[in-house]
UniProtKB/TrEMBL annotation:
The keyword Signal applies. The keyword Lyase does not apply. Keywords: Signal. This is Ice-binding protein C-terminal domain-containing protein. Residues 183-206 form the Ice-binding protein C-terminal domain. The lineage of its organism: Bacteria, Pseudomonadati, Acidobacteriota, Terriglobia, Terriglobales. It comes from Edaphobacter acidisoli.
Length: 209
């Protein structure tokens, strides 16, 4: 009987820990809106990570398999453009050096309009010397913001980015789909799990012995 109760307590503690687990949502920049083409897709990823109830961290990583892709500053778009449901007031902070808060709203040529953007302040046109990233920043809202709040625009695109492609051409690429990575318990979650198990064991031991 004691063994069964301990197992149940362990399961409940683990489930509580899992609710605090950290999971990312990955968007793939695989839509090519360049004049002709920007080369071979995918061109990069946009990783959304829930920092806390009011903040999401955004990380844009260009595909550097061939070492040529860069962010661009052609004026046809920006380093990253995105939407949030209900268009809340937000603060974009902790931005990677060489980037800054962009126009709001903004457009990305063939991919349409977006409510928010981050621009590459260090980019000059489509030069190969432009920053390759990764680009990282936080999106914070006093009313709360979650990964689920990042929504597609009217064209069905979640993100767009102005890049120097892997064939030397420039233009906007976009993401119209995403995937969720498995949840991985954070150290605090594992500590909660361990504490729950030990506490349950101690209580039951006093009761039965």
């Amino acid at each position: 009987m004691l063994k069964k109760i301990l197992l149940l307590s362990s399961a409940l503690a683990f489930m509580s820990a899992a609710t605090l687990a950290h999971a990312d949502t990955i968007f793939v920049l695989n839509q090519d809106g360049c004049s002709g083409t920007c080369g071979v897709a995918p061109f990069g990823t946009v990783d959304l990570s829930q920092t806390n109830s009011t903040t999401v961290t955004v990380t844009v990583t260009l595909n550097q398999a061939n070492g040529t892709e860069r962010f661009a500053g052609t004026g046809a778009g920006d380093a990253l453009e995105f939407n949030l449901s209900s268009n809340p007031a937000i603060t974009i902070g902790n931005i990677t050096t060489g980037f800054g808060v962009g126009p709001s709203p903004d457009t990305a040529s063939t991919f349409g309009s977006f409510d928010y953007s981050v621009t590459c302040t260090a980019c000059q046109g489509g030069k190969s010397s432009n920053p390759a990233g990764p680009l990282s920043f936080t999106v914070t809202s006093a009313s709360g913001v979650t990964i689920a709040d990042f929504t597609a625009n009217t064209g069905g695109y979640y993100f767009a980015s102005d890049i120097f492609g892997n064939n030397g051409k420039t233009g906007n690429v976009a993401a119209n789909s995403f995937s969720n990575t498995p949840s991985v318990p954070e150290p605090s979650s594992l500590l909660l799990f361990g504490t729950g198990v030990l506490s349950a064991a101690g209580l039951l031991r006093r009761r039965f012995f």
